[in-house]
Task: structure prediction
Amino acid sequence: MNASMKRALPYALWLGMALCIWGAFFYAPLAAAFIGQSSRILFFHVPLAWTAFIAFFTAAFWSAVYLWGGRKARHDRAAAAAVELGFLFGVLATITGSLWARIMWNAFWNWDPRQTSIVLVLLFYGAYLALRSAVADREARARFSAVYALIGVVVTPFFFFIVPRITESLHPEPVINADRHLDMEARMFQVLLGSFFTYTALFLWMHNLRSRLMALAERAHAD
Amino acid sequence: MSSATSSWLASAVAVFAKDWRCELRSRYALHAIALFAVTTLVVASSSLGPLGADKSQAVTVLPALLWLILLFAAAAGLPRAFVHEEEAHTSAALRLAAPPSALFAGKLAYGASLLLGLEALIAPLYLALMSLDVPSPGLFAATLLAGGYGLAAGSSLIAALASQARGRSTLFSVLAFPVLLPLLLLAIELTRNAVAGQPAGVALPQLLLYDASVTVAGLMLFPFVWNP
Amino acid sequence: MQSVSMSFTGLTRRFGRVRALSSATAEVAGGGVLVVTGSNGAGKSTLLRCLAGLLAPDSGRIEHVEDGRALPPEERRLRIGWVAPDLAFYDELTTLENLTFFAKLRGLPPRRGVELLERVGLPADRDAGALSSGMRQRLRWAWALLHRPRALLLDEPFQNLDSEGEATARALVAEHLAAGGLAVIASPVPLEVDGVVCHLELAR
Result:
């Protein structure tokens, strides 16, 4: 990618985000079963949750690359930046979710399986960040946190088997439900799909910035 | 059996035997873990004992309490296996003499035997003090076995991580609880089923899958934790 | 005749802001001794820990060759012999139990421990926790030689030893070199060693 395209990228992203927000409020119709305007928050909530998962998978990917791919400091930074952003997006998804829950179910929090699962996943990545701050040596910190991120890949999927059995769900069907039938108005689907794409691009851009910032901080710290 | 496998096994057995020998001479972890479990057991039973009268409440609450006691007893005793190596500065000698995966297997066997021994002491006592009937003793025993093993496997790997960082004991809890949570949820569910006389359901295969995944992950990842 | 050589180039290690080891380069072959000197904090121990595989250098290369084959780090770690001030054993076990445990880990006959304890002049049934600092140093020597390593990494190897202990340790080094092994010795003060000696002076 040449320099002028690189400079244009943030503007394209800005435009994309503006379109997503506009689409959520003015283009998409209201969903029938939802109270008032409450369905509009889903155009933020769902892509945020999606991006959080992209981020956690990115973190696991870079952690594996760090351990088996020659122990490069930049791979460790990429993993750490992905967890930080995944945590941010996950928290925002939880907040938007519980705002919506307050309107629909009359309570911010009711230990719905999805609420429970995301809290457990965030707890895990919170522990990841605690581990990073507890190890002073750069090499050891990178190694330990890469291992912990990979333990996360092994352990967190269990939440999604177990938790739904324990609590009853009121959560609406996922975007594409079990019988692969798309139960959604076309314009809603367009906004949601566009948001998935744009939020993922937003994540990748923020991830690049954060990784570079970490590299600079490390260099400043070393001198 | 090839000579590589048998020497790997011999190293693992040597670590297991060494840990037990040191433990039986100092009794640090044994005392900590057993006293902790018995103390909480007494506190729990004296404050919740009357609950035993109400069957439905007992089935809901008591299995969760049993596993919380076991979790905290494990957190009190198991990290010691690795923390001791760091505090006594013996870890360098181990790093230079033992293949890491064999070392992990030996430590895991030690932790699992310690925890299963504790369960053999605590579980009957708990049932008696809480006057809790178990209509499915087979399922109850299988849950204790698989759950205790998983608790030891998860704790061993996390203990190896935490022992090399600052604020070891707090960090251990912070790191271990999210990892052990699926195991706890499954073990509590299964214990409930055993106490209510219901079948195991999918929770038992899931618990075994958890044990297997954590063991494989431990054997694969431990070398990265242990050596630079 | 055994064949061994060790070389390292540009080894650097930082601890946070502190540059503990800065671009160290040297080589040593079988029968030879590399004496590493430098003031406190010059990075002698850091260098030896890197060579042993106990610490990963930030940059630089280490090559440990035995019988014409360069050893990967995980094998290097198990092959070297190591004596260092912070090397410790299990206080709850006796000297012999300690050595027997490590012999088992390495797949060696337990008799090896008895031989070495006699050689360094230590009682077999004393708890390691009840040893004096000089006796601890003797135990470190016995431990380091268990598996007949070809490369010895010795960090202040004669500290705390009495004159008889130092004579034994020096004789062990001489035998090791005569058999074709190599040694890297770190010392804060200049050190006289017999044999083919090269020097590396580390600056802070």
